[in-house]
Structure formats: structure tokens, C-alpha cells
Amino acid sequence: LQEELISKAGVAEKRLGEPSVPAEEVVAEVARIIEGELTEARKIPGKADRSNAIDTLRTKLLDENFKVPEGIPYSEHQAAEKRRRDAKEAFRRLEKKITQKLINESGVRADGRKAKEIRPLKMKVKMLPRTHGSALFQRGETQSIVTCVLGTGRDEQIVDGLMPEYAKKFYLHYNFPPFCVGEAGRIMGPGRREIGHGALAERSLMAVLPDIEEFPYTVRLISDITESNGSSSMASVCGGCLAMMDAGVPIKATVAGISVGRFSDDSGKMVHVTDIIGEEDFFGDMDFKVSGTRDGITGIQLDLKARGLQTDEIKDIFERARGARIELIDAMEGIIPAPREELSEFAPRIITVLIDPEKIGKLIGPGGKTIRSIQERTGATIDVENDGRVFIAATNGEAGERAKAEVEALGAEVKVGAIYEGTVVSTKDFGAFIEIATGTDGMCHISELADGFVKSVEDIVKIGDVVKVKVINVDDNGRIKLSRRAAMIEAGEIAPSGDGDSDGDGDSRRRDDDDGDGDGDGRSGGGRRRRRRKKPAAAAE
Predict the structure, then answer these.
(1) Which letter does DSSP use for residue 20 in this model?
(2) Which of 106, 214, 331, 494 reaches 20 to 30 Å from 379, CA-CA?
(3) Strand (E) positions, 189-347?
């Protein structure tokens, strides 16, 4: 893509000029004066102590031997300044040469380790108890605190760049504040370092994430580097894996990362070192980062200053990286052997429900009214996919189960003979309308509200009452006929009447009482008795 853009723009390739080379006599003088002391300073184990000692030697060298005198002609002043600059560059080159020589000839690394030795490890999970998952990972003087946050589908990261817009259910943010290397500075937006290191750690962990069907959460990792002396991206990989395991993310395997460096001399001799520190990265030829599980590699990044790698050299690098990786994984699994079986009490609970895609519109409702009402009543968050998958997230199980029941009721077909628990939403003279699921209601005729005569609907139910009803019919237009009486009979609350559920049974229950003569059943001598309206009490007197 870059080459295509360059050719279209017609821009000529630019090459940097050769770096300035210090004068040979200055290089020789610097080596004669300071090489012995600098060699001893490079052997000091601690980063801060070693840096302070080297800075002191550099200042001493420049002030005592390459100081720019005052009050001299301009041309001499310029020459003295150049000589001082050459001395600074000669000191840097001498420091690099000594570092490489100590490793190549003596096998002595800056912090005293052997070539394959990993720095001391310190790990801890549940570092921050209020988060969904957290971990501290420290390797020598490199330390990372990683937090894991679990979210829903609406927490996915929307990426809008050169490529078409897409969403990420897993992402890792890497922060490298100035104080982690002992500096003071502004904390600004992410730079190339933060973006690159975060991308490497993110890709290294993506391979072990569970399938969305198994774990529908959006996972965000935040790696805060609190101390840095090399390989902070690999510390983010290890810390990120621990944080996910602490959060209960069912990852497929434990992931660790390590870096391998290379030092070479003029004769062509090369030495590989494991778990490089910052100075070994700076003075060495290579920084080869490898992350993976016990069974394979999940991420690679190569920074190479020299030209090219040989095939047998790459094989040796991978073998070294695997040995160190297994050692790291053993240590990590000693802290937390497997992902926690239970999520944090502060993490949302996500329940997945599958409905007919044709019912999605019914679930959402006009202008989102139905789905909003479910969320308001239950306190859950609901996300709907086009394939009919519904993700219900709630901070407690009870709210999630209530929302699940409502969603399932909306997505399910109303079956004749099934009993539902519904809410009375309106009453009429002829019966009550009862909502048996969000957006789905039916009519219970007054004759089906109770056994026996019902004079008024509101004698039995009122708006807002929750009752159990049985579906006794669904007509061709989808209208639902309900019966509270049938549900009571099935529950054993009342005995079945002799007339069963015939149409005439409702008429006898609706008939007004007479004046008390006869047997009270509205019939006399086998003939039909004429119905009479009751007189008002005042008229009867």
C-alpha cells in the first residue's frame, strides 16, 4: 500500500545521510582515559545504580578532558565544541563495545545473569478487588498492573479507519507513563509505542479466547506499565493472561511472552541472550519477542538492527524462547492454575436466548418501546443480533432471569392449553384483557373469570392484578382467548362443574338471581322460567 501511494504521488525516495563519525584521535583518547572504569561500571547489577555510575563517568570525562574554554576565538570555540561532541559519541560507542565484549567473551550480562537466565519473577492476582479481574506481573525491573473488564455487546470497540468499519469484542490498551522510567512529562494520547506494543500483546492473547457462543462478553484489558527496564509488552502479555484468568474468562491455555536478544562482534561471533533488559535492547543487534502457550506460538515481533537472520539462528531463538516460555507458564500457573469458575460479583451476568428472527421486531417494539420497557422493569441490558440471538446482561441473577422469561415469552408461540401468569391491563363489562407476555395479551371473558355467577369483572380482578390463566383458543387472526377458571380447575383450586366448559355453562353463571322462590337454579318444573328484574328496595316496601 505504501509503495502504491508513493508511485501515485511521484515522490522520490529519501535516504538519510551517514551518521557523523568521531575523530579517531578522540576515540583513542576516550578509550585510554575511561575504558577501565567504564568496564567496571557496566558490571553494576542495578539499573539505577549502573546508570548513575555511568553518568558520573561521562560528566567527569567531558568536564576534565573535553571542556570548552571561554574567551577563545570563534573558530577555536567551534573546534572545541566539535571535539566535545565527538567525545560524547565516542563514549557511547565505547559503552556499546564494552557491553558486547562482556557478553561475547565473558558471558557477563549487565545485571549479572547468565545468557538463558530469566530475571526474578513476582506475580499476584486480584490486585484490585473492585475490578472484574486484575493482576500484577513483575520481571526484574519491569512491572505491569493489568485490569480486565467484562462488558456487553454495546461495549465493543468500533474501529473506523482505512478499512471498512468493524467492531472488536476483545481489545487491549497499553499505557506507558513517563514515571515508569523515572522521567517527568505530560501524559498525552497514545503514541506509536503504545499502539504497537498494545497491538502485539492483544494479538498474542487473541488466539486463546473462547468462542462467542461459550463466552459472549466483550473483554477489555488495560496494561499500566508502572516500571520499565525492557520487554514491557511481554509483561503485558503475561499480566493480561493472569488478569483474564482472575476474571473468569475461560481461555483455552495460559500464554506467556519473552524476548531474545543478540550480540555480535567484528569476528562474526554471535551470542543470544534471553529476557533482555533496556540496555541490552539498546546496545544489542536484535529484539526478538515471542509469545505463546505450551503448544505453540501466538505472537512474534522482530526488531533487527543488523542485516538478516540465518535459518539455524532462528531455530535457536525459538528453542530459547520456548524454554523460557514454559518456565514462565509454570510460574504463572503456580499463582492461578486455571480460570476461575465464577465471575466477579461486580461483573455483569450475560444470558443468551435464541428467538425466531421474525420475532425481533416484536421484541423491539415500535420505536424500541417494548425492549425499553423490559429493561426498565428488570434492570437488565438487552442486545439483539440479526440472527435472533438475544444477550441479556444484569448485575444479579434475579434481574437476568426475569428479563429472560419476558424475552422467551415474547419469542415463543402461544400454545392452546398452556398456562401463563399475566397482568390485567384493562377491564370491560364483558371481560378483562390480560398481558401474558410483553406485547402479547388475550381476553378473558367474564364467564371465564371464576366459577359461578360473576356480576362485575372488577369483583374478581382489577387492573394491575397478576393472575394465572389458561389459553383456551387462538383464532385465525391470532386473537387469544383466556380462562382464569380453567387455570384454577387445573391447579385444583376449584372443582370442575358438571357442565364442563360448554357455552351454556357461562349463561347459567351470568343469570341474575330471582326473588328467592324456586330452587335457585333458574329453572322450575322442567319449563323455562321467565326472568324478572328485581325491584328496588324502596318500591318493594
Answers:
(1) P
(2) 214
(3) 218-227, 256-264, 270-274, 286-292, 297-304
| ∠ Cα 336 340 345 (to 5°) | 125
Ordered domains of the chain (ranges, CATH): 19-106 (1.10.10.400), 121-335 (3.30.230.70), 349-411 (3.30.1370.10), 419-511 (2.40.50.140)
Spatial separation of the C-alpha atoms in residues 302 and 221, rounded to whole Å: 24
The answer to whether residues 349 and 380 touch, using CB atoms and an 8 Å cutoff, is: no
Q: What is the DSSP string of 57-85?
A: HHHHHHHHHS---SS--HHHHHHHHHHHH
Beta bridge partners of 219: 150, 170
Q: Read off the amino acid at residue 305.
A: K
Backbone angles phi, psi at 457, to 5 degrees: -55, -45
Whose CA is closest to 27, among 77, 109, 95, 121?
Answer: 95
Instruction: Show Cβ contacts of residue 121 under 8 Å, excluding neighbours closer than 6 positions.
Output: 138, 139, 328, 331
Distances (CA, A) of 236 to 168, 194, 231, 242, 284: 19, 11, 9, 10, 22
Radius of gyration (C-alpha) of the chain in whole angstroms: 40
Residues 6+ away with beta carbon under 8 Å from 511: 453, 522, 531
Going from the C-alpha of 353 to that of each of 146, 180, 349, 407, the distances in angstroms are 32, 46, 13, 8
Cβ(472)–Cβ(501) below 8 Å: yes
Secondary structure letter of residue 496 according to DSSP: P
3-state SS class at 289: strand
C-alpha cell at 64: 576534565
| Residue carrying the nine cell digits 533487527 | 304
Share above pLDDT 70 across residues of the chain, in percent, rounded to a whole number: 91
Please, are residues 158 and 167 in contact by the beta-carbon 8 Å criterion? yes
Write the pLDDT tens digit of every residue in 233-256: 999 999 999 999 999 999 999 999
For 120, counting Cβ atoms within 10 Å of its Cβ (0-12 exposed, 13-18 middle, 19+ buried), the class is exposed
Q: What does DSSP assign to residue 495?
A: P
Terminal Cα-to-Cα distance of the chain (whole angstroms):
105
What does the mean pLDDT of the chain come to?
87
Amino acid at 455: K
Coil/strand/helix, residue 470: strand
Nine-digit cell at 150?
A: 467484562
Q: What is the pLDDT of residue 497?
A: 66
DSSP 97-134: HHHHHIIIII---TTS--TTPPPPEEEEE-SSTTSSEE
Contact between 238 and 256 (Cβ < 8 Å): yes
Helix (H) / strand (E) element for 26: namely: helix 24-41
- Distance of CA 467 to CAs 54, 103, 515, Å? 84, 83, 34
Place of cell 406485547: 439
**CA diameter of the chain:** 144
d(CA 527, CA 521): 12
